[in-house]
Amino acid sequence: MIKHFTCVICPLGCEIDVEEENGGIIALDGSRCARGKEFVIQELKEPLRVLTTTVRIKGAEFNMLPVRTDKPIPKRLIPKIMEDIAKIEVNAPVKMYDTIIENIVGTGINLIATRSM
Amino acid sequence: MKADVTVIGGGPGGLVSALFAKRNGAKKVLILEREDELGGILKQCIHNGFGLELFKKDLTGPEYAERLIDDINKEGVDYMLDTMAIHLSNDRTITAVNSKYGVFNIESKSIVLAMGCRERARGNIVIPGTRPAGIYTAGVAQRFINIDGYLPGKEVVILGSGDIGLIMARRLTLEGAKVKGVYEIMNHPGGLKRNIVQCLNDFDIPLYLSHTVIEIEGKDRVTGVVVAKVDGKMQPIEGTEEFIKCDTLLLSVGLIPENELSKEASIKISSNTKGPVTTEIMETSVPGIFSSGNVSVVFDLVDYVAETGVIAGKNAAEFAKENKENKKFINIFPGKNVGILFPQRYSYRDDLIIFLRAGKWVEKPVNIEVKPLNIRMKRLYARPNEMIRIKVLKDKLLSVKGDITVSIKEVEE
Predict the structure, then answer these.
(1) What pTM does this model have?
(2) Bridge partners (DSSP) listed for residue B97
(3) Complex ipTM
C-alpha cells in the first residue's frame, strides 16, 4: 500500500511516497535528504507533535497562561491532553519553564509554561 | 526629554534594535510601547517554530519575547509602556502621549521605526453582505483565545490561507470549535507548507484553493457565508456559489506595514513593500531615522525581523555618535518575476542582505540573478509564500556604480 506524506522538517516540504508491506518499508520516493526518511519512518510508527496551548491562570494580569509540552508527544493523545488541560487552573506567579502538569497522561512528558506571569 | 536612540514600538523588531543600539555604545536608549507590556505580537503567538535561525532553538512566541525582554532589562534599556507616539518630525523629534507626562516631546539623536504591521480587514477586501457580529481578523481571534481566554465562535469559516489563518484553524479546533474550511482566492496556499500539513491535514480541515467568500449573511450574528470558485482573474464563477452555515468568519488576508508616523516625517514610502525606502543599513530617506522589522516589509520569519533589528540598532547607535549622513547610494530594482524586494537602496556601508518574494509560482529550478554583479544562485523552486534571503558581501559591491536589478529566472534545460 502506498502512503503519501509531506515532510515538515524544513521549508522545502518534500512530497514523499512510501510503499509499505507487512509493516516494513519496501520503497520510498521523493525525499531530498535523510531527515525526510526519518520523518516518514516516525510518521508511520507514531506521529509526534509539540502541543502548544493555554491554561487558565488566576491572579495574573491576563486570563490565560501559554504552555507547551517539553518534548513532542504522540499526536493521537492530543485530544485527551486537551481535556485534562481544560480542567486545571494555576495561580500566579509562574516562571517561564515551570512545570504545570508532570508526566502528562502517563507519557513521561511534562507540560511547561512558556512565559512568566 | 532627550535620548540617543528612541525606538518606536516594543515588538521583536523594536526590542532587537534597542538591544543592539545599546550594545553598540548608545547611552540612553528608549523604547516607546503603546501596550501595557513589551513583546508585541509574539505574546499571542503561542505556537512553536520561532527562533530556529537566531537562537538555534525551536521556541514559542512568548519564550522568544521573554528572552529579548530579559536582555533589555539586563542591559539597561529604558522603556515607557502605555505610551503612544502621535507625531514624528524629520528633525527627529517625537511627540508622544501617556497618562504620566501627558503630551510630551522627545528629542532623539537617532530613531528606529518599529511599528510593525496591521492586518487587512473586511473593508480592505470589500465582502458584500450584512454587518453582523462574528467577523474577526485572524490576529484578533488569536488574542481572544490565547490571552483573554474567549472562544470567538463554534462553527468557523476561514478566508485566506496565510500562516496566521492556518495556525488559527488548528487552535480553534484544539479548543473545540468546528473549522469548516479554509478558502483561498489564489490557486496556491498563502502560508508555509509545513503549516498546511501540521495545522490543516493533521486535523482533517479542508483547504479550498481558487475559492472566495462572496457574501456574509446574518442579522445580529453571522449565520453563514456564500463561497464561490474563482476564475484565472480571481472573479467568482457563476453557478459555483455554495452556502456554508457558520457563526464566525475569520479573515487572514494579508498584512500592511503601519507607516502613518513615517509619512508625517516625509519619509519616502515604497509602493512595492508599503514600508520606508531603506538602505542596507536600514536607514530611511530621512537621515538618522532607521526602520526595523515588519514596518519596512512584511517578513515570513521573526528571525528575519530580528536580523533587520540588529542592523538598524547598530547603525542608529553609530548615527547618534557621529551624525554622519549617507549621501551616496544606488537603487535596487525588482526584475523578472520578483514581486517584493527589500531593501531598495545600497549606500556602500555594509554587506547587502536582500529579501525577495517571487511574483509567480515556479515549481522547477530557478536562478536568482543580481545584476550587474555576476551573481547567480540556484534554488529548487520559487514560491511567493516563502521569502528568499540572499547576502552579497560589501567587497563585491564597492565597485558597482549603476543600479542593481534582482531577477528570478527559470533554469534553461
Answers:
(1) 0.94
(2) B84, B103
(3) 0.91
